[in-house]
Amino acid sequence: IAWEQCDSDRCSIWVNRFVPDVGWGSAVLLKTVTTPAFLTPILAVDSRGDGLIVSTVYGQYASEIWGDIYNHDHKKIDTKEAARTSMRISQLGGACSPRIAINARGRAVLVWIQHDGRRHQVWASRYVTSLGWGQPTLIDASTKGNAYDPQVAIDADGNATAAWYYDEGGHMNVWTNRFSAATWGWGRAQRLSRLGTGHAFSPRIVADAFGDVIVVWSKHDHTRCRIWASKYSPTTGWDTEQPIEPPSTEDSCEPQVAMDATGIAVSVWRKREGNHAGVWACRYVPGCGWGKAQLIESDKQGKVCGAQIAVSTWGEAIAVWLCV
């Protein structure tokens, strides 16, 4: 776990680690600054317990993305030389919204939004244990719109897929780009949601061990918002987008998705239920496709938000949400 802790004159990032049959250790100070301050750190951990912690540092005139490496054996090293290294990943100024994905071997991909003085663009950097962080790479399309809400997923071989949405002159569309571990480079960005069929936003992305990828998003089709999805296969490419819930008179939003190593995925989202809101879910099974969407939160007394989903190695899922 990693978190930000602030007092009147400084902000710090702290970390702590839980080991089965041992319990929680002691909190360790990772970094302290007086000015500028850190935004809440995000954390990714590989199968060995080594972690990558990424945070946004806001200065008086600019913001930057910084990365720290946290080694699970830090207690074996003198605290002054603890197994933690820090470096600036993004270009100077205008960086925000970092997202990171890591696989079991410790290969990771970071994506973020960078403002170049004219518009918001999507950038990426890869991390390899033996090489460290790579050079930042511009991965979005050459459009005149602004990019928002980048997301990223990585498979067992290090292939990565990023997704985000553009505001293209008042029309929002979901875009994607892929990194190939075989060619060691990013491809060309492409649009997933069909142009002119509605406003697509809030993409969420997952990948299995074999390179299959699923992206889900919200799409307003000029009448109501529904949850849509598209699947990528290394052999056939991207499928045509499709809704994963039937037409409705109510709006659906805030999708989340999780996938196990074999490609079984579950998506959850929030849907209005008259004056209230409920949580819905839909399951994807390779070879069968998306099943029937179903209501999993039936309490009509309150409103729900912040639904999250996790899937185990065997395809079992647990969803949690806030009910107010």
Can you characterise this structure?
- This protein is an all-beta fold and 324 residues long.
- Helices cover 0% and strands 57% of the residues.
- It is built from no helices and 32 strands.
- The protein has strands spanning 2-6, 11-15, 18-19, 23-24, 28-33, 37-38, 42-45, 51-58, 63-70, 84-88, 95-102, 108-115, 120-128, 132-133, 137-138, 146-154, 160-168, 171-180, 185-186, 190-191, 199-207, 213-220, 225-233, 237-238, 242-243, 252-259, 265-273, 276-285, 289-290, 294-295, 304-311, 317-323.
- The strands form 8 sheets. Strands 6, 7, 8, 9 and 10 form a 5-stranded antiparallel sheet that branches. Strands 11, 12, 13, 14 and 15 form a 5-stranded antiparallel sheet that branches. Strands 16, 17, 18, 19 and 20 form a 5-stranded antiparallel sheet that branches.
- A hairpin with a 4-residue loop joins β12 (108-115) and β13.
Which key features would you list for this structure?
324 residues; five-stranded antiparallel beta sheet; mainly beta
Short description:
This protein is mostly beta strands.
Biggest β-sheet strands, sense, barrel: 5 strands, antiparallel
Q: How many beta-strand segments?
A: 32
CA gyration radius, whole angstroms: 20 Å
**Oligomer description:** single chain
What is the averaged pLDDT score?
88
Total helices: the number is 0
- Give start-end ranges of low-pLDDT stretches: 75-83
Topology:
Blueprint (H helix, E strand, L loop, with lengths): L1 E5 L4 E5 L2 E2 L3 E2 L3 E6 L3 E2 L3 E4 L5 E8 L4 E8 L13 E5 L6 E8 L5 E8 L4 E9 L3 E2 L3 E2 L7 E9 L5 E9 L2 E10 L4 E2 L3 E2 L7 E9 L5 E8 L4 E9 L3 E2 L3 E2 L8 E8 L5 E9 L2 E10 L3 E2 L3 E2 L8 E8 L5 E7 L1
Antiparallel strand pairs: 1-2, 2-5, 3-4, 6-8, 7-8, 8-9, 9-10, 11-12, 12-13, 13-14, 13-15, 16-17, 17-18, 18-19, 18-20, 21-22, 22-23, 23-24, 23-25, 26-27, 27-28, 28-29, 28-30, 31-32
